[in-house]
Amino acid sequence: MTLWMLLESIVFFIAVIGALDSAKRVGVVFGGYALAIIAGLVVGACCALAMSRLGRVVGTRVSKLQPMSRQRWYFRALYASGMLWIFLAAILGKWIALGLLRLVA
């Protein structure tokens, strides 16, 4: 398991946690929590898949660069973007679940 895979799993689960936080703040019953979990799973899966593809594409292109120092800088930028992706997944999970819960409730 690499650090990038760990970041992908964090992105997946942080979207679910954000969606559950929205359900808790709204004060819904069991059905609302189920809807929030489903929304969080969908958002988390999409974010993790996009992050996985981004890592694969950037990783293959960067590995072809010749100076090792350039590779290090690109990989550092890739990991920094992964941290930003975690924040984005949390916000998206909250907003989408909140919107769905307001539509249903």
Could you walk me through the main structural features you see in this protein, from its secondary elements to its overall organization?
The mean pLDDT is 92. α1 (3-26) runs antiparallel to α2 (30-62) and α2 runs antiparallel to α3 (68-104). The chain has helices at 3-26, 30-62, 68-104. The chain is 90% helix and 0% strand. It has one domain (3-96). By secondary structure, it is mainly alpha-helical. The longest helix has 37 residues, at 68-104. The chain is elongated and about 55 Å long. The chain has three helices and no strands.
Mean pLDDT: 92
CA-CA gap between termini: 41 Å
Q: What can be said about the biggest beta sheet? A: none
**Class by helix and strand content?**
mainly alpha
Order of helices and strands: HHH
Number of strands: 0
Overall geometry comes to elongated
Helix proportion of residues, in percent? over 70%
Number of domains: 1
Q: What is the radius of gyration?
A: 17 Å
| Separate helix tally | 3
Annotate the secondary structure layout.
Elements: H1 3-26, H2 30-62, H3 68-104
Annotation keywords:
mainly alpha, elongated, single chain, 105 residues
Short description:
The chain is mainly alpha-helical and 105 residues long. Helix content is 90%, strand content 0%.
